[in-house]
Write a structure and sequence with these properties.
This protein has 675 residues and is of the alpha+beta class. It is 72% helix and 7% strand. It is built from 24 helices and seven strands. The strands form two sheets. The protein has a five-stranded mixed beta sheet, covered by helices on one side. It has a two-stranded antiparallel sheet with strand order 1-3. It is elongated.
């Protein structure tokens, strides 16, 4: 601890109330401030604990001061890696600060340290809870620097939790906030951990890009610690890419920083990775040297990593005929297996170190067991030879059994093939019979359709002839009575004429419905403008009588369809829109023709009287008409004919309408008509 830290302590305790006990606290802090040399952490902890006892005797007004002292004690224990003590004291400080409603920077720092301890204890959800609290309070205080730090810590929590996208989000948020804070430290750590995120995502190029950005920050800050850790991360990235030369390069850089400055974070992991690289390159002497150094500095090695090192060491010692080293490694592996259920990693590491540094007693015990190990190795070799012979015999037996089994399978397969041939012959015979029946049914169906069409034509003709006579006689009689001045029955005769013409229209529409889709398809290419003009020409009289405006919008140069059917559809829809126009309002009909990958899309939109929602599904039924539209001309067959044609060609139709506003019909036809 240096003079700057004691100045901070003095500033904090200057807020103490001026009762006698608080005065003593203030004087102690001033004593600290006067010391200009470094003081051991353990002495600081003792002094701060003494302050805590003094405050315990003072009045209740000093609760905030007590919390500050507890916070400082907790921070010091954290820096001494006494995480359990630190957590207990920081939680006590947190409770006091909550009771006092002091959600100031002391509380924010308290949450930061608690979150870091939760990360060390692998409780990532707990860490996220504390860092979120830290972030909320920093926002309330409008402290951008603490918000940036909170985002950085949240990113770390989610990274350790392996929720990579969430971690990425918080690191990018940290970088955005840092544009105002302008801290090279925050930016460097954000870039460094983004490199870790993309490394885990296996996007190694992006990982290297962010690592390079982080390196610029550490160089700017002259942070040997930052560069040291970054080199380890970069070595992991190159290891994943299979570039062992770069792995060695960056690990050696970290070691150079360690030798120059004494920064030794994760030193055991560096030696292990160097050992692995040399082991894979068959440079056994270098591998053995680095593995031993890894075990001697093994505070960060997991139990599995320690076992892997010992297995590789035993291989090296076996190849080098180093019996003492081999026995040593075997002993250590056995000890690790015995201790594998232990949850205290640091205790396991102490066991490894103590076993590596054999004391005299262990050496004496090993000498007594030397003969036993020699015999045991010979026995194992003999056992291995016997197992090998048994394996060879077993393999030969397996080959003979497989050959016999394969022969039986071949016979069984031939029998199955013969049975399948017989079954297939039966199926083929049944299929021929079915085909004959289907052909006969198709012939009958064609005959029925032909008879039905003839019947439709004949019925239509037979109905229309007498109907024309009725209408004709009624017209002649009406004209005769008009000339004679006898107007008594004129209205009745006009009703007969109107009804007869309506009946004729119904018969004509029925004939159209019956004939819909029965003509031979003639698929042709034509421009939408040409088809539109031909439809307008066919409806010219109706359009002019109603002063209707019919418009086309399309970006298609041509369409390929059965032109007779599409013209019939468009005529029906456009004439329908004109017939059901609003009174004293110019009918406006907009036709659009577009396409997607498989379909042509037709849309007819009008400004007519509209159709109530409850009739949207009914108007395509034969003779179905909306009650409020009965005065308009129409037979109730046109839309049914349209739906029949569209469905025959495997298309579909939809309606969008609002009463009093207008109606839109949308129908799709496939580009490859199979009707």
């Amino acid at each position: 601890m240096n003079l700057t830290y004691f100045s901070i302590l003095l500033t904090i305790f200057s807020f103490f109330y001026l009762d006698s006990k608080a005065q003593e606290c203030r004087l102690v802090c001033e004593d600290f401030k006067s010391i200009e040399k470094e003081i051991p952490l353990d002495k600081l902890v003792v002094e701060l604990e003494r302050l805590e006892k003094i405050l315990a005797l003072s009045n209740k007004q000093n609760c905030w001061c007590k919390a500050k002292v507890k916070n400082l004690v907790g921070f010091l224990y954290y820096n001494q890696s006494e995480y359990t003590k630190a957590k207990t004291i920081l939680l006590e400080a947190e409770n006091v600060l909550k009771v006092e409603n002091r959600y100031d920077e002391d509380f924010i720092r308290n949450q930061n340290y608690l979150g870091l301890i939760e990360i060390i204890e692998k409780n990532f959800d707990g860490a996220i809870f504390h860092f979120n609290r830290m972030n909320e309070m920093a926002k309330k205080k409008n402290n951008l620097e603490l918000q940036t730090e909170a985002a950085l810590q949240l990113g770390l929590s989610y990274l350790e939790k392996n929720e990579l996208d969430t971690a990425k989000f918080y690191y990018q948020n940290c970088l955005n906030l840092n544009k105002q804070v302008k801290s090279d430290y925050f930016e460097g750590y954000a870039f460094q951990n983004l490199a870790r995120v993309f490394y885990r995502k296996k996007d190694y190029e992006k990982a290297l890009d962010y690592a390079e950005r982080a390196n610029l920050n550490w160089e700017k800050l002259k942070s040997r610690k930052g560069i040291y850790l970054l080199n380890i991360i970069i070595s992991d990235i190159y290891a994943a890419k299979g570039d062992t030369s770069q792995v060695l390069n960056y690990l050696e850089r970290s070691l150079a920083i360690y030798k120059k400055t004494g920064v030794s974070l994760n030193l055991d992991l560096i030696y292990k990775r160097l050992g692995d690289v040399y082991f894979n390159k068959n440079k056994l002497e270098n591998a053995e040297k680095n593995y031993i150094l890894a075990l001697k500095n093994g505070d960060n090695l997991t139990l599995v990593e320690q076992k892997n090192i010992l297995y590789n060491l035993s291989d090296i010692q076996f190849k080098n005929n180093d019996e003492d080293g081999l026995k040593n490694s075997i002993n250590l592996v056995l000890n690790l297996v015995e201790k594998s259920k232990s949850k205290n990693k640091f205790q396991e590491n102490r066991i490894i170190k103590s076993e590596l540094n054999f004391d005299n007693k262990n050496r004496e015990n090993l000498a007594l067991k030397e003969d036993f190990y020699s015999k045991e190795i010979k026995f194992k070799r003999l056992t291995l030879l016997l197992y090998s012979l048994l394996g060879v015999l077993g393999f030969i037996s397996y080959l003979m059994y497989s050959k016999w089994q394969e022969s039986n399978k071949r016979k069984l397969l031939l029998e199955q093939i013969e049975d399948q041939k017989n079954e297939l012959s039966k199926v083929n015979e049944e299929l021929k019979q079915s085909t004959t029946i289907i052909t006969q049914q198709n012939v009958r169906l064609e005959k029925i359709n032909e008879d039905l069409q003839n019947f439709t034509y004949a019925t239509s003709h037979d109905l229309k002839s007498p109907l024309r006579s009725i209408v004709g006689f009624a017209t002649i009689l009406r004209r005769k009575l008009e000339k004679e001045g006898n107007l008594k029955h004129i209205d009745l005769l006009q009703n007969i004429e109107t009804s007869g013409k309506g009946m004729g229209e119904i018969i004509e529409n029925l004939l159209t419905y019956a004939k819909a889709g029965t003509h031979k398809l003639s698929i042709e290419k034509a421009s939408p403008e040409l088809i539109f003009n031909q439809v307008k020409l066919a409806l010219d009289k109706l359009i002019k009588e109603n002063k209707a405006k019919v418009n086309l919008s399309t970006q298609l140069n041509e369409i390929e369809l059965d032109l007779l059917s599409i013209k019939q559809l468009l005529q029906n829809f456009i004439s329908n829109s004109i017939k059901y126009a609003k009174k004293d309002v110019t009918p406006i009909i907009n036709l659009s023709i577009n396409e997607n990958k498989n379909m042509y899309i037709f849309k007819i939109e009008d400004n007519g009287i509209g159709i109530p929602k409850e009739y949207h599904s009914k108007i395509f039924n034969m003779f179905e008409r909306v009650p409020n539209q009965l005065t308009a001309e129409g037979s109730g067959i046109g839309l049914a004919t349209c739906k029949k044609l569209i469905e025959l060609y495997k298309g579909n139709i939809e309606i969008e309408s609002k009463e009093g506003v207008g109606t839109t019909f949308i129908f799709n036809l496939p580009k490859q008509i199979t009707a």
